[in-house]
Amino acid sequence: MKKTIALLTGGTTGEWVVSVKSAATIAQNLDADLYDVYKIMLNDHSWFYEPADSVKIEINRNDFSLTLEGKKIKFDGVFIAIHGSPGEDGKLQGYFDMLQIPYTTCDALTSSITMNKGYTKAIVSGIDELFTAKSIQIFKDGNYHIDEIKKDLKLPYFIKPNSGGSSIGMTKVKHADDLETALDKAFKEDNQVLIEEFVSGREFSIGVFKAQGEVTVLPTTEVIPANEFFDFEAKYTPGATEEITPGNMSNEEYERVHRIVKDIYKKLNCRGIVRIDYFLEYETGNFYFIEINTIPGQTATSFIPQQVAAMGISLKAFYTSLLKETIG
């Protein structure tokens, strides 16, 4: 018997544009023989199903149901495709937990913690063979001192909104005089900011997921941006970045990276598909953790669909395995 799935897209941040594109890819590749899929849009004002242009049917948020032609539709599970808030920060996960509706992502606690780059780094920092860049976490109304930051960290710095995604509000600072401007930019996106020392290395992004009870690592993607770093433009403009899947790693690097990313997945208690970004430092070959994304993009230019293809499986089979593992 078919399962009824809500494919949840949109969101309340600037990443909603990416979420809509991700949901389009997912919708095209969900097995119609196994699932009846309803694409639900969530924004600041409403949650609705749109069966036709200009027709919007509101979701009953008391039980997350939909009434169509007098018939009440309840969902067996939710495929969350919302990047940023409230899809990636634990809010929706907590809501669905209370309603006892299963979903495809990490649980509420893991989603909430991993949305904060500084807190995530603190948790994973004890993992064997994993390194993290020296950093300082500051708060908008906190008691931080620019001079102390300049003294404690070596240039260049990466300035990142702590809970942001898609590299929005991020700056690479090469001159100390530019630090305050970069902080102002980041604080427009978040009230917490992470200032990290720059790691000189090759950049990679790798998908990790659990299916049939086993943690599986997808082929990695090597990222060579035309811009100075992998910013929003480089991420979502076709051709703006050279992306090599599978990325070029030695057998030793390949085995070590797989060990580390599986340990990260387990230590953070992940579910579903996540994407881990990392550097292999030029001089040492050390693995430097950048961040984890618990709802990675599924757009035509996103890494996960590229990596699934490189593994030799179809997106349909991949999404089916995710749904069976997380929703049943």
TrEMBL record:
Q: Where is the active site?
A: 15, 166, 302
Q: What class of enzyme is it?
A: ligase
Superkingdom of origin organism:
Bacteria
Question: Which residues does Mg(2+) 1 bind?
Answer: 277, 291
InterPro entries the UniProt entry points to: ATP-grasp, ATP_grasp_subdomain_1, D-Ala_lig_Van_CS, D_ala_D_ala, Dala_Dala_lig_C, Dala_Dala_lig_N, PreATP-grasp_dom_sf
Keyword Lipoprotein included in the entry's annotation: no
GO MF, one annotated term = metal ion binding
**GO (cellular component) term, any one:** cytoplasm
One matching Pfam family, short form?
Answer: Dala_Dala_lig_C
UniProt similarity note: Belongs to the D-alanine--D-alanine ligase family.
Task of the protein: Cell wall formation.
Q: What is this protein called?
A: D-alanine--D-alanine ligase
Organism whose genome encodes this protein: Pedobacter petrophilus
